[in-house]
Here is the input.
Amino acid sequence: MKDIIHKLYLNSPFIVKRILANVEAIRRDRYRKSDISNQIDFEIKMFEQKSYFDANRIRNFIHEASNYVEYFAFLKGYKVDTIQDFEKIPLLTKQKIRETNQLLISNKIKDKKELWAGSSSGSTGQPLKYYRDKESINIERLQYNSFYQYCGCNINNKRIRISGVKIAKFQRKKPPYWLYIDKYKQLQCSAYHISKSTYRDYLEMFKKIGAEYATGFPSGWAALAELMLDNDLTYSGFKAIITDSEGLTLGQKVKVEKAFNCPVYQTYGLGEVGMCAVQCKNGHFHILPTHYVEIVDSEGKSVEDGIVGEIVVTDFNSSSHPFIRYATGDLGIIRHDDCGCGFTTPYLTEIVGRIEDYIITKDDRKVTRLSLIVKPAVGIKESQIIQVSKDEIVINVVPDNNFDKESMKIVVETAKEFVGDMTVSWQAVSRLERMPSGKIKFLIRKI
Here is the structure.
């Protein structure tokens, strides 16, 4: 049914698409509308934290989870007085979520519609379905708004967003490559149509809209900035660009700031646990006090500051579907000293493995965020997209016991929506290609 609706949407006139997009925005806004009675002044308090490891807070959270969430029943009566006590709790991995997702829902929840249902292919391309607490969604939205204000932006003014939302078919050669979401005063732009022949269309639309600030995928903004600088063009309409969903290299950040004459601020988070950290003026990712973030070794033990390890997150807002010591699969480096920016929480100096590669199409578009391609696949453990040449990509999949070969036909069709006139094939493999760190990189470009 979703595939049918998706095809109808892509084939609809743009006025119909705009109506549908605004209806969806209203639906989401009703769900996300904050009903928190005591709304915290996040702008002032979101980084005020005297003690990062708060044993009382963790104990209370574990008590709630162990009494109402079947999966965490083994923690009943468990006392956490020190970091070492906390580290003895087994990591919640993505595989455990896949296997026991229903057991992670609090028995206080009578209808799963009370939760936000999400899905992600993750860094390995293996589908992950999860639920999030409504309060967690609400607070995250307040935090984003507060961070926009920290970056000098008025959340009531217009904004531009570049992301992976499908606006039009990949083959489209003329504008619009965007939709205006009236509810959010947001011009929603496609990240998949930025090319040598279209980038000026984007800039002209930016001028027409007159937005105060911009958000979205770093890869989209970096691709646009590179084309602008190659042609000696700049744009000066934004107070700031705030990125999410991906990593941004220092070189890319410099190019985007030069092309758009404004600072670029990054955020770090995941769909499962929301926004966890935001970048300060010194370039560090300060952890939000609504989350507890650890950097651990292969045994789940904390590593020393300055050492690379896996990022593990506990989201204190998601009591209806708790994420306690959630192993993200991302790698990072943490420090607990004074950054000097004014924020007092620990910070990540580097996030390793979040910088995605991209596919270069025949007409030189840089296409990233391709994890959506493999979502239709049924019964796969992991997947990996490899660009073999300018004309060809291969999708490697590791089959599970319930693997359905027929579902891969839809995967190939979906891929062509993103990459256009390229040869797309797939093959079953026993093991995916890995980085030196041992982590699987979902997208590899060999040209």
